[in-house]
Structure formats: C-alpha cells, structure tokens
Amino acid sequence: MGPSSDPSLIGTFEPILANKLCQANFVTRMRSLSELNDAELLRSMRDGDEEAFAALYQRRQAGVFRFAWQMSGSHAVAEDVTQEVFLFLIRDGHVFDPNKGSVSAFLMGVARNYVLRKLRGERAMISLGDDSEDEFSADLADPELNPLDDLTRTETIENVRKAVLSLPEKYREVVVLCELQELNYKETAEILECAIGTVRSRLHRGRALLVEKLRPGKADTEEATALKSAGCFA
After folding, report:
1. Cβ–Cβ contacts within 10 Å for residue 30, how many?
2. What is the pTM of this model?
3. At what angle do helices 196-214 and 153-166 cross, to 10 degrees?
4. Residue-averaged pLDDT of the chain
C-alpha cells in the first residue's frame, strides 16, 4: 500500500487541509465583500453576516479612530470611541437612514457624539446648536486662508496638534473634518447635521483662530512654508 493511501497519513493531513480550505474560502469571501458599498455591507451585517461586519470595520475603523484622536488628543479615548462606535453599529445599525447621508458620515457622526460625551463628562448625546458666532463674517476671514498650509514640518506637528486641540469644540470639529480628514463641506454638514453655510462659517472662524494661535502678532515667520493640511497631526 503506497503512502497516499495510508489512512493514518490521511488523518494527519485532514485538519491542515481543512484549515487551508477554510482560509481560502474566507479570503475569497472577503474579496467579494470588498466589492460591496458600505450600505450593502451594513444591510448584510444586519442580516447576521459577521464577515460583512468585519469588512465594514476593516474599511472604516481607521478613519473613525483618526477623527477621535484628532478631536481628543488621546489614543486611549480614540480606542474607546472606536470600540463604542462599532458596538453601536451592531446594536443600533437599524437607525441608519441612507436618505440622510452615507454610512461613513453616519459613523463619524456617532463618533463625534461619543467624543463630545467623553470631553464633556457624563452628559448625554449632544447636538451643538447654532449661535451668533456661527454668523462669523467671511469678510473677517479670508476663505483662502489656511494656516495649516503655512508651516514647516519640523515645528508644526506638535504646534498644530496643540493649536487644534485648544480650539472650541465646534470649530475644532470642522477643522478636523475639513482640513485633517479632508472631507468636503457637504460630507462635513452631514456628519454635524447642520447647514453647509454653518460649516463654511465655522471653518473660516476656526482658521482665523488657528492663525492667532500659530502666528501671534506675526505676519511672516519661519513657519511660513507650504505643508498640506493632511500631513499635519495625521
């Protein structure tokens, strides 16, 4: 009897072959899931497909973590928020409404609420209301002004991190979303559940505050060389 027909050898290799087959099936399955959009993955997840959840988590986890870290300045808070966001998705994913925006915007909106809860203590989910500061005139802040573009990498990352974290929350979040996450006004408005005009005015005000913090009383400094905003505090 040849080795290939030895029952003991077949029994030895069966678990290995089964594991390889399982891994191959998983890879194939994940590749097929990667072709689905976020809403389709969420729908499959809600139908009990754990691999759809894994695919959605793999796709969106980094962005959620980055937003939470840039808002809080704490890796520990960012890790907690990221975990809470996806637990919320498992528990309450049915509240997502595709008519109100994308899954990505939905996740960032949930992350925003959890970050604000942590920053403000044990208060419940907070919706920031408009106030007179949101009417900040575009005349007071050049729409082309971007202090994050006028810094050298050597000095900037820590300076920008501190400056962004020192902004009032409603200006910090638009700076983080528009400048650091590089989202457009529409996507940012979906996340913050406010008007595009409000996003625009808050961003102008946030940029003006950053100029004051990064270049107090100076028109030109050694920091004035180009650096794309996405490269700061990323």
Report:
1. 14
2. 0.68
3. 120
4. 76
All residues at 6 or more sequence positions from 136 whose CB lies less than 8 Å from its CB, including other chains: 201, 202, 204, 205, 208
**CA–CA–CA angle 156, 173, 91 (5° rounding):** 125
Of 116, 109, 101, the C-alpha closest to 169 is: 116
pLDDT tens sequence across 146-182: 555 555 554 567 788 888 999 999 999 999 999 999 9
Sequence-ordered list of residues with C-beta below 8 angstroms from that of 221, at least 6 positions apart, any chain: 215
Which is higher by pLDDT, 154 or 52? 52
Q: Which two tokens stand for residue 41?
A: 């993955």
C-alpha distance from residue 124 to each of 76, 121, 173, 190, 231 (Å): 20, 9, 18, 20, 33
Which is nearest to 205 in space by CA: 120, 129, 132? 132
